Amino acid sequence: QLQASGGGLVQAGASLRLSCVASEHSFRSYTAGWFRQAPGKEREFVATITQTGSNTYYADSVKGRFTISRDNAKNTLYLQMSGLKPSDTARYYCTTYDRGPYHDVDSYNRRGQGTLVTVSS
Questions:
Q1: 6-9 contacts: CB < 8 A, separation 24 or more?
Q2: Dihedrals phi, psi of 26, to nearest 5 degrees
Q3: pLDDT single digits (tens) 49-104
Q4: How far apart are CA 95 and CA 109, in angstroms?
Q5: Strand order in the sheet with 76-81
Q6: Is residue 47 within 8 Å of 33, Cβ to Cβ?
Q7: 8 A C-beta contact, residue 18 and residue 78
Q8: Could you give the CA distance from residue 44 to residue 7 in angstroms, rounded to a whole number?
Q9: What is the CA radius of gyration of the chain?
Q10: Angle (CA) 49 55 58, round 5°
């Protein structure tokens, strides 16, 4: 089970940090990431981090503003978001990687209930 939290309503330019706690210790053996879905839109890849955190990958739309990290001792995944824009408004889901291209949301096979981020202009 993946439990995401940290969303909220913020103004443009603000920062938020999302957290995702996994219920199982095996989470540390997975490449993990975040994707988002805005109302009426398709799911969109946001970021991915490999098992040890040695490699990270970002969507072009968030590169330079968002930072993904993880603490395997706590079975927790993070997404630090800064310079938020109204276009970042979406429900954010954490997930684990299965197979395929990292930037393809269909390469991931799990998600929790997500956490809602709303950015006002």
A1: 6/115, 7/91, 7/92, 7/115, 7/116, 7/117, 7/118, 8/116, 8/117, 8/118, 9/118, 9/120
A2: -70, -5
A3: 999 999 999 999 999 999 999 999 999 999 999 999 999 999 999 999 999 999 99
A4: 7
A5: 2-5, 16-22, 76-81, 66-71
A6: yes
A7: yes
A8: 17
A9: 13
A10: 60
